[in-house]
TrEMBL record:
<dbReference type="InterPro" id="IPR013785">
    <property type="entry name" value="Aldolase_TIM"/>
</dbReference>
<keyword id="KW-0560">Oxidoreductase</keyword>
<keyword id="KW-0521">NADP</keyword>
<dbReference type="Pfam" id="PF00724">
    <property type="entry name" value="Oxidored_FMN"/>
</dbReference>
<dbReference type="InterPro" id="IPR045247">
    <property type="entry name" value="Oye-like"/>
</dbReference>
<dbReference type="GO" id="GO:0016491">
    <property type="term" value="F:oxidoreductase activity"/>
</dbReference>
<feature type="domain" description="NADH:flavin oxidoreductase/NADH oxidase N-terminal">
    <location>
        <begin position="17"/>
        <end position="345"/>
    </location>
</feature>
<dbReference type="InterPro" id="IPR001155">
    <property type="entry name" value="OxRdtase_FMN_N"/>
</dbReference>
<protein>
    <recommendedName>
        <fullName>NADH:flavin oxidoreductase/NADH oxidase N-terminal domain-containing protein</fullName>
    </recommendedName>
</protein>
<keyword id="KW-0285">Flavoprotein</keyword>
<keyword id="KW-0288">FMN</keyword>
<dbReference type="GO" id="GO:0010181">
    <property type="term" value="F:FMN binding"/>
</dbReference>
<comment type="similarity">
    <text>Belongs to the NADH:flavin oxidoreductase/NADH oxidase family.</text>
</comment>
Length: 383
């Protein structure tokens, strides 16, 4: 149902977003990517079978999907019922979900994640403090493991220099496990103020060792993760998400442009598959502001495939592809609410609105797999 996007010079062929793109070993039939979206429906950190339906609804032949942020270890979690990939049980639980996506002919990457200080001791083994680049506590409130109560973010503990290789290993294990579960690759979560971003951003990182101070030092640990994960599963199976201009979870940087270009240049040396930047206009997870900043210099500096996300519509996505500002466009909220988004773009059909209230609830169907396909909308003719 709605899983094919047939393009030809007469229809999708003239829609830039719906043109094919070869990304390393992956022959994509179009450029409308499912952005990673936390849905908080993986009870006890174990992905559930309802995710097989959710992801397969959004899969198209030759499409590219990125699964939600998934913890690399038992210290990586900070939100209710988000999945993990560090145990055998979790790997097994992912398998039918990946299979369901592959059955539709789509490519599926897993976003691997460590929240760092964006956590509470209730999520941590033995109630320890969460880890970070620094001891600086995050203000605001954390959603507690029940998914209902709110609590403070706990004061983090700055990682000792000799503990860093263990976290690099955790990312490697997660990547290896993702491949074992059948995923085509991983997207390293280096965005939105989580652990890797906590090292990159100078409003957080106050270290005086080789992981603090200069851009080279602040980016050292994220690049060590990239290098190690690339060695583990092959660079053609590795992407990374970055939000140098973002301020999610108090993660501003004093020179985001320099950070964006430094990372794009450094990442090119590892020959990874793609880099996925959040548009500079997006400051929080999805709060947009007016800005003249662009990703043009980062685009120029990076040698692999380029993906952007943040506030894109069909029109802006087409513009980005047509002007060669990016190779791919990831859609979050519109794809969440429109399982057949590429097809709706093809037909220029109206979109279902997204319902914010059900983004993160634990219900296995509501706000998750019950957004209608075009055919199911009574006021539209059957296609
Ligand atoms: C419900 C929800 C969950 C999200 N979860 C993640 C996540 O797990 N990982 C991530 O990198 N970004 C996450 N984001 C950010 C999206 O991937 C995307 O960058 C953002 O929604 C902006 O794109 P959009 O305007 O197309 O929605 C989330 C956003 C939403 C709305």
């Amino acid at each position: 149902m709605g899983s094919e996007v047939h393009t030809s010079p007469d229809d999708g062929g003239s829609i830039p977003l719906l043109t094919p793109f070869r990304m390393g070993p992956f022959h994509l039939s179009h450029r409308v990517v499912l952005a990673p979206l936390t849905r908080s429906r993986s009870y006890g950190c174990v992905p559930q079978l309802h995710a097989a339906l959710y992801y397969s609804q959004r899969a198209t032949s030759g499409g590219f999907l990125i699964a939600e942020a998934t913890g690399v270890s038992d210290t990586a979690q900070g939100y209710p019922h988000t999945p993990g990939i560090w145990t055998e049980e979790q790997v097994e639980a992912w398998k039918p979900i990946v299979q369901a996506v592959h059955n539709k002919g789509a490519f599926f990457f897993l976003q691997i994640w460590h929240v760092g200080r964006v956590s509470n001791t209730a999520y941590q083994p033995g109630g320890q403090p969460p880890i970070s680049s620094s001891n600086k506590k995050l203000s605001g409130k954390a959603r507690m493991p029940s998914g209902i109560e709110l609590g403070d973010y706990s004061e983090p503990r700055a990682l000792e220099i000799d503990e860093i290789p263990q976290i690099v290993d955790d990312f490697c294990l997660a990547a290896r496990n993702a491949i074992a579960a059948g995923f085509d690759g991983v997207e390293i979560h280096g965005a939105h103020g989580y652990l890797l971003d906590q090292f990159m951003k100078d409003s957080i990182n106050d270290r005086t060792d080789e992981h603090g101070g200069s851009l080279e030092n602040r980016c050292r640990f994220p690049l060590e993760v990239v290098e190690a994960v690339s060695k583990e599963i092959g660079p053609e199976r590795v992407g990374i998400r970055l939000s140098p201009f973002g301020e999610h979870s108090e993660s501003a940087d004093s020179n985001p442009e320099a950070l964006a270009v430094y990372m794009a240049t450094a990442l090119s040396k590892y020959h990874i598959l793609y880099v996925h930047y959040i548009e500079p206009r997006v400051k929080g997870s999805f709060i947009e502001v007016h800005t003249h900043d662009t990703l043009a210099s980062a685009r120029k500096a990076f040698k692999g495939a380029f993906m952007v996300a943040g506030g894109h519509t069909r029109e802006s996505g087409d513009e980005v592809i047509e002007s060669d500002a990016s190779d791919l466009v990831a859609y979050g909220r519109w794809f969440l609410a429109n399982p057949d988004l590429p097809r709706r773009f093809l037909l220029n059909a109206p979109l279902n609105n997204y319902i914010r209230e059900t983004f993160y609830i634990q219900h296995p169907v509501k706000g998750y797999t019950d957004y209608p396909f075009l055919e199911e909308m009574e006021h539209l003719p059957k296609l």
